[in-house]
Design goal:
Shape: elongated
Strand content: under 5%
Oligomer: single chain
Number of helices: 9
Structural class: mainly alpha
Largest sheet: none
Length: 191
């Protein structure tokens, strides 16, 4: 691949990311915003947006796919399969809250029919199940607590925390994990 081809591809990727980020900002505030409003916020021509995304629905689907990849990368970055369970639980939570606060509109649509989005969510779900099993084996969660129930409570806490946006992701993660563990844990909290 030539340097010119790489530069063009890199420029196109930057343009797409700029459009996706602008769409997130605009649609978070005004869900019925037009492609023109999104183009204006991205600082590109409306034709540029339409060249990259055939329709508003295609743009929203691309946002959901992008946010889902960011979500999966956030979980992966915490090394949930190898980091001590309590540390991994906190780090996954902080990382996911960052993505959810940055991509709230897109994440709310991330349960699309796109098979790749579904595959990524299934992979994250499986990793979370392993993390909760490891947490129970390590004594972070009580032995008599159903890990599936604890996981659903955890997901609900993440959802509510992301909706409220009541603080920085690290502080929210500490509060969320502490709430989870004091409710279903052995009493050991982060603080």
């Amino acid at each position: 691949m030539s340097d010119t081809t790489r530069a063009l591809r890199s420029d196109a990727e930057r343009t797409v990311r700029t459009i996706l980020e602008a769409a997130e900002r605009v649609l978070s505030r005004h869900p019925a915003a037009s492609m023109e409003q999104i183009a204006e916020a991205a600082g590109v021509a409306r034709t540029t947006v339409h060249r990259r995304f055939a329709s508003r629905e295609a743009l929203v689907d691309a946002m959901a796919a992008w946010a889902t990849r960011q979500f999966a990368e956030a979980v992966e970055a915490a090394n949930p399969d190898t980091t001590p369970p309590l540390v991994a639980l906190y780090q996954v939570t902080a990382n996911v809250l960052r993505v959810k606060s940055d991509w709230n509109f897109a994440m709310s649509r991330a349960l699309s029919a796109d098979p790749e989005v579904a595959r990524v969510h299934a992979d994250v779900e499986e990793r979370c199940e392993r993390l909760f099993s490891r947490a129970q084996e390590a004594g972070v969660l009580r032995g008599d607590v159903d890990p599936q129930w604890a996981k659903r409570v955890y997901y609900a806490l993440i959802h509510e925390s992301a909706q409220v946006r009541d603080g920085e992701p690290d502080a929210l993660a500490a509060r969320l994990v502490d709430t989870l563990l004091r409710g279903v844990g052995t009493g050991r909290g982060l603080a």
